[in-house]
Amino acid sequence: MSTADAPDATNAAVAELGSAAAAKPQRVLACLLCQQRKIKCNRQFPCSNCTRTGAHCVPASLVPRQRRRRFPERELLDRIRHYEALLRQHGVSFEPLHPPPAAAGAAPTAAVAGAAAAAEALSAPLGDAGSSPNDVKSGVSSPNWAAATAPRPRPANLWHALSEKTSPDTGQDDDDGDDDDDDEAVDAGYLHDGDDLRAAVIKKAWDYTYRSATESNQQLLFGSPASASDVELTAAHPPQAKIFRLWQIYLDNVNPLLKVTHTPTLQARIIDAVGDLANISAPLEALLFSIYCVAVLSLPDDQCQAVFGSPKQALLAGYQLACRQALSKCRFLQSGDPDCLTALYLYLISVRSMMDPRSLSSMSAVAIRIAQRLGYHSEASNAKCNALDAEMRRRLWWSLVIFDNRVCEIFHYKTATLSPTWDCRPPLNLNDFELRAETKSLPQVSERPTEAFFVVLRSELSDFVRHSAFHLDFIDPLLTSFAQTKMATRGSGSSPPTPRDLAELQRNVEERLRLCDPQNPLQFMTIWTARGYLARCFLLEHCWKHLTSSPSQQADGHSAAAVGYALSVVQCDTRLMTSPLTKGFLWYHESFFPFLGYTYLLQRLRKRPADEQADLAWEVMSDNYEARNMTAKFSYMEPIFVVFARLVMMAWEARQSMLRQHGRPAEPPRIVAYVKHKIQGSTDMTLISGATSALNLAEPSTSMPVGIGANTAAATAAAAGPSFAAPVPPCGYPDAPVGQAAMISPMAMDMDPFWPAMDWGLVPNRQW
């Protein structure tokens, strides 16, 4: 086609488009007079109203459309940008309305001016007289540039704090930095004689604990294993009678500790849904399966077998599979339904004790991000809802944050969400029947304990901790000043005053606990959980102050008080584990092993075996070990037990040496006897050479001695049966260097689900 024909083709195309547009029926608008008088127009010109009044009818389509007026704020912003551009063009220093990201951390005015000057110099032509390299350099302010590039303050090392190390300048020792990535590169992760517990040891133990759990951890991504097929969700529900039995178990054992569902409204919905499971909504079905999961989780094995006629683990695995399918069906990643988010939260609780915390933390982060997308973290968003929805949003947000914080503290405490960067206030002390969907305002808050008292007090204590320096300095020191400023502004107006320190917080909590009935199971649980949590906070505050203070500022009296705090942590846990009132709540509390108290006591007893509270400390730890029935729970010699046993035996060796020097009998405490018996008397476990030497068990005992040395490794492996493919070196881990003989050797890898939920992270923001 010639170029001369091109304009004709273009005109033809335009005409064709115009005719197509003309063929489309145009919307007929009311005439101008009817629009002004705001009366109905029959849209026939002249219209009936104008004809009746004799007025001139002007169709609205004949009036040129006025351009929409721009917002005054928009015009103002444009003018400000224009003026800023002129200032930059003439090299005038100023503070811009929106500082560029590169200026963060430096003084706004000087940094922006320097950046503008540098940009102007760089953009100038090379032949320009004033654009020399020196001019470019002079455009950047040296002091501000140094401030912007200064090293970021590093969080305090919690492991050093627990061992009462001191580094006044940085809070860290030169030989063991706090950067976990650096530690992994240079630290083999073995606990030698005289070593303090550190992050690399815990990481090594987790690696070996879950090295064969790849498939089960991938289920967290809501994809079934390759050998399983999709299930029919309607058939996966139990019979109606068992549905209501599971619902009642949930109300008795789970709901009082979580309060993320509103019983009066949800129970009515469940009754309606059970009658027609084939047509149940996807979010409600996912919520039902998650309730089944946590209800079964809360039952002991024997009770589950008696009530449902199935082993607990088999029943739980079936409901978890159905819950994953239901969550995928309701598109939980895109959904804004609160039932869907609640179902995800309850499902994550049900898998917590059997999953690698590193995998679980990723999924808990997904739940947190979904809640943030829906505005649960923002009090401004919650205030737009009615009283019931707003309060349930607060309860669910705090439960998610505390759960995520708990998962993070098990392994990597610095990624926790418990920080002062959001403003959702703690839940109110209200019963469920006081919250109704039709009410716009909240009822009067009760001063006495309610059915939500456990959740309320847990959230209030966590709220105090997330603004505390002893917590934030272990996570992100830059948040400390922000938290202090925020704390200073809190408590103003109608809100209650904020406690200034832990001592004032403890007094306030004890005043409220005096109103509790110790014979009430939930209130008994609240009393001793709160006291144990407060003791834990006092202990962490002491460790933080000891870490950041100089030796001249440290006093023995403070250390003695810290021992008392650690003893209180363990004693409160023993009370909860031994009371018949907490039988229905043990599913929740069993996963909160007081490892923080154990670690501080054992490392202090190793360094100060003659401490005046040493006998009491050994007795308290022995009582707790028995209360938790740890010997039975250590069904296999897993890597986590290796670390725990090393801490116990190193402390006892120091105590034993001191007693012998003073000519006193060295009768081992019960916890030491249990650990020795577990190692020496286990015929069905995998014991490899180096176990007794690692624990120094060569002293006389009533048990048959275990062989020591590399020559006995093959014999031990042969006696253990087919669980050994080859002899394991005496270092404790099959693929570790032979020279690393500091660890006890595990390992049968069928892990008991108890230990993965222990408090190995030891962060100051524990979820009770």
TrEMBL record:
Residues 131-144 have a biased composition (Polar residues). Residues 30-58 form the Zn(2)-C6 fungal-type domain. Pfam families: Fungal_trans, Zn_clus. Its main location: nucleus. This is F52509c7-b610-4069-820a-4c3d94a3c22c. Residues 126-190 are annotated as: Disordered. It is found in: Nucleus. GO terms for cellular component: nucleus. CDD domains: fungal_TF_MHR, GAL4. Gene3D superfamilies: Zn(2)-C6 fungal-type DNA-binding domain. Keywords: Metal-binding, Nucleus. GO terms for biological process: DNA-templated transcription. GO terms for molecular function: DNA binding; DNA-binding transcription factor activity, RNA polymerase II-specific; zinc ion binding. SUPFAM superfamilies: Zn2/Cys6 DNA-binding domain (SSF57701). InterPro entries: Sec_Metabolite_Reg (IPR050613), XnlR_reg_dom (IPR007219), Zn2-C6_fun-type_DNA-bd_sf (IPR036864), Zn2Cys6_DnaBD (IPR001138). Coiled coil: none annotated. The keyword Ligase does not apply. Residues 171-186 have a biased composition (Acidic residues).
